[in-house]
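My main concern about presentation is that the manuscript never shows what a single data entry looks like. In essence, backbone conformation is discretised, so a fold becomes a row of integers matching the chain in length. An entry of this sort, consisting of the sequence and the corresponding backbone structure tokens, reads as follows:
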Amino acid sequence: MFRSFALESTSVMRFLVLISALALSGCVSTQPFASTKQADRLLVNDRALGHSARVQLVDGFWFRARALHLAPDVTTWLDPVTDSLYTVDTRDVVAVRVVDQPRGMREGAGIGTVVGIGLAGALLVADGKAAGEHREADALITFLKIPIAIGVLVTSTSLGGFVGLGLGHRTVYRGAVSGPVSPPP
């Protein structure tokens, strides 16, 4: 009885570790950004091309953006919901957050694969019986461990990829400002 409780709690713990690791699949990175430097503007324009973005202005408000373009004097974008064109002074842009979903999917699948390898390895190593105990079904259980381990690996990789796709890789290009800046929504 004690042995089955230990196996059940270990399985629950493994499941929780898997879910926790997969939840962290969408990664965030922050890079410095100066709207006065042409190289920084070109980098943000390039990274935002074809991806969803959010723009933060000096007043602290964040705006959803599509077709973002930072120029030396003005920054323009379209609101993805209303298709309204926004134009602001480039000096007022404090931060830009770009969400790259294909990159997030690759990162999530990689994290899911690592978690799946750990779970599958633990499954293959564990025998689940007390010392000296022998069961008639040991051969069948051993035979079934390999397909189950492969299923765990495939499921973990797929789940990580889907979570990563949903969250995406978020890169925040943040400029130097004097005053508090709110985190991206």
User: Anything to note?
Assistant: The radius of gyration is 24 Å. Confidence is low (pLDDT under 50) at residues 1-7.
